[in-house]
Each structure stands twice: as structure tokens, then as C-alpha cells.
Amino acid sequence: MADIIHRHHVVQRGQGRRPMVFSHGFGCDQQMWRFVAPAFEADHRVIVFDHIGCGRADITAYDEVRHARIEGYAQDVNALLDSLDLHDVVFVGHSVSAMIGVLAAIAKPERFAQLVLICPSPRYLDDPPGYAGGFSRADIDGLFDLMESSPQGWASFLAPAVMGAESPADLTDELRASFCASDPYITRRFAQAVFLADHRHVLPQCTVPSLILQAGTDAIAPPAVGQFMHAHLPHSTLVVTDTVGHCPHLTDPALTIETLRRHLGG
């Protein structure tokens, strides 16, 4: 257990018994949950952690093969749950961590009670004519090229798009700084794993009940993507909030907490 806690900089708080695990998105770390996670500490065992290559996770645990695909991060999640011997887990995943949670739940459904998927996407690339993921291949290739040529420039380009036009400047600056703080090589490979993945085909395999929390305006995972998730993910509930941007847990934490509480019955 000590190895897992060190590897992922695991932090546990709360007075409840039921575990609630918060998993951050691309280029972020567990601090992105600071406005939401504490609200559940009175009645849950709240667990936050950093993915390998992010935040204060042990960078030496990065594996070129394992972490070249999102499935590798899902394996990390299940290793964490196994090590802490967690059952009846409420897993809250933002952005790419939503699909990481889906993949982890497909592999070990017995560990999970519920999934909360905040602004999820099974595929970020458009697949015309039937699927609009939000990005063309030229968009993604341009982002990869910018990550190669300008470690600061890509963060300045992507952070405002992620946070949304109405986001406070300090939150956009925080996200930009978070992008820049990660190891450039690992971040670039993580971006490739995220933006080139296609997990649409696995959605019907997930048997764990899930809440899809979709922002009303989101340039990264448009509302049509949330509707696609809901249509193909069994036992799912779709809630579209009147929020702008890809990070409602940062820009509107009160609404996020209220929605989660209503869904969880707490």
C-alpha cells in the first residue's frame, strides 16, 4: 500500500466509510478537485491522487509501453483500488479520466458502485458523417506540432479553450501553469494517448451505473458527445448543466456538488 500511496501521491480524508475517488484530467493534478472533494468528506472516504507523469506522482513509475494508451492509466486505477482494498467505489473522473474510469470499471466491475463522468469523451476526433468529436485531425496534429515547437505556446493556446471564455483569468492561468509544470515528453505522449484514442466500441461493455455531467457549452467535449455517451453507455443518466467550459468543477463547483449530491442521494 505504501508503494501505491507514494507512486500516485494518494491523499485520503473524510469520516465516511464509502470510498469516493476523484481522478483528474489531462495536464492537471489532484488540486483541481479542491473546490468539490471536501464537500463529500463528512459522509465518504474521499481519495484523490495524481496520474503518473502529473502533479507529485512518482515520475520514475512512468512506463513507455503501459502509459502509451489510456488502458494503462485504467490499470493504474485498478491497482490503486486493489492496493487500498476499496469496494463500492464512487469514481468521479473528469475529461480523459472519465474514460479511464469506464475502462477500469469494465475490467473490474466488482470494485465500483457508480461512475460520475464529468465532460467525458470516448473520441475527441471527428468521424464524419456520423460523429462529431470536436476536433479535426488537422486540429490535433497542429496541437502536437505546437507541443514540439513551443512548450509554453501550446499551453497558452489550449488553456483558454479548455476553461471557456467566461472563466476567471486566474483559473485559466492556473491551468496554463499546470500544463507547463508537467514533464514535456510525458505530457506530449499523454496528449497523443488522449486525443488519438477511440473507445466508442467499449461503452456498451460497462455495467456500472453512471452519471454523465455535461457542460452546456464545451469546446473540448461538445454536448453531442455527451448525448452519444448516454446513448451507448448502459445504465447512464445524462445531466446537461448551464455552464461554459470543460471544467465545471473549477468554474462552478457549487453546481457540480449539488448535481453529484442529487445523483448520489446524499
From TrEMBL:
UniProt domain AB hydrolase-1: residue ranges: 21-257
Alphabetized UniProt keyword annotations: Hydrolase
Pfam families to which the protein is assigned, alphabetical: Abhydrolase_6
Gene Ontology molecular function terms on file: hydrolase activity
TM region(s), chain numbering: none
UniProt-listed InterPro entries: AB_hydrolase_1, AB_hydrolase_fold
Family membership noted in the UniProt record: Belongs to the AB hydrolase superfamily.
Protein known as: Alpha/beta hydrolase
Species: Rubrivivax rivuli
